[in-house]
């Protein structure tokens, strides 16, 4: 898969790597051609740099603390699978040098087959991953409806659906999504549920941080999507390394890499290629065709994914600039925080009350805001539930 150039006489020659100047290149990395070995070093260095806080401390073992626990959400897509591979390599290198590791992983896959029958259960894929990386830590497969195990994370979604009572969690989840007014709202709430379940699991398993597999491309998508959905105030927490309002650190070790670079990386003819582990890679590759066909039904998140995946090849600097600009935002400042949003759990921006959710409600019905025009929600979440069928938010 070496890159080739066509000469004036019609013959083709392989482009040499600009770093080692001996091997043929496999990728034109923004400004230079790299061979597979140099490209591998480049990818690893970007991840290790972001994990510097979790290197092994060179102090005597008897005074060393136990390895810190980190949770890694695994979707079996290109990004999260690559991140697991890189962290496994880092752990093996730490063991080889010091016989100790600076951290252990809790690898979690969220099974969403209850709401999407086309999604295969994750147990089989997780077993394959565990056989490949047996020494990184624990492996868990958790159903999305398991969010109901964490009352503090789900109480906002216990809607008063008649007859449901304390019934089946799967039916409760389907009722919740069915009450929402649009595909964008459903995708937004699904993302919130997934995030809150992951953070609940991280606290339950005594993890101090969540390692997200978001690339530069994904962070750029998230920046514009959340802004368009009215949740721009949350961008510093959703795109920056550091403390989150959930009582955990959020870290993005792949934040300096483009998604297209990882797509090339998993395709390298290494002794043990990663692509067979990426059961979600095919779906990601078919995204553009699916989004183009949907047209009017496309969600904001899908639109942003389509846009940035389309431009990252020719204009990677635009993608990187979006993320750099978002990184300059801070959580302190002129926005007044009034408690927490009961939906997303983030500190409220105070804007939800400006949206009159009860405008179309019938007499005697409570608006989706729980009684007073969305005052207990942030503006983004108030927009997501605006127009939902009548129900009552719990107080």
UniProtKB/TrEMBL annotation:
It is found in: Cytoplasm. Pfam families: CTU2. It comes from the Eukaryota. InterPro entries: CTU2, Rossmann-like_a/b/a_fold. SUPFAM superfamilies: Adenine nucleotide alpha hydrolases-like (SSF52402). Pathway: tRNA modification; 5-methoxycarbonylmethyl-2-thiouridine-tRNA biosynthesis. GO terms for biological process: protein urmylation; tRNA wobble position uridine thiolation. Keywords: Cytoplasm, tRNA processing. PANTHER family: CYTOPLASMIC TRNA 2-THIOLATION PROTEIN 2. HAMAP family: CTU2 (MF_03054). Plays a central role in 2-thiolation of mcm(5)S(2)U at tRNA wobble positions of tRNA(Lys), tRNA(Glu) and tRNA(Gln). May act by forming a heterodimer with NCS6 that ligates sulfur from thiocarboxylated URM1 onto the uridine of tRNAs at wobble position. Prior mcm(5) tRNA modification by the elongator complex is required for 2-thiolation. May also be involved in protein urmylation. This is Cytoplasmic tRNA 2-thiolation protein 2. It comes from Tuber aestivum.
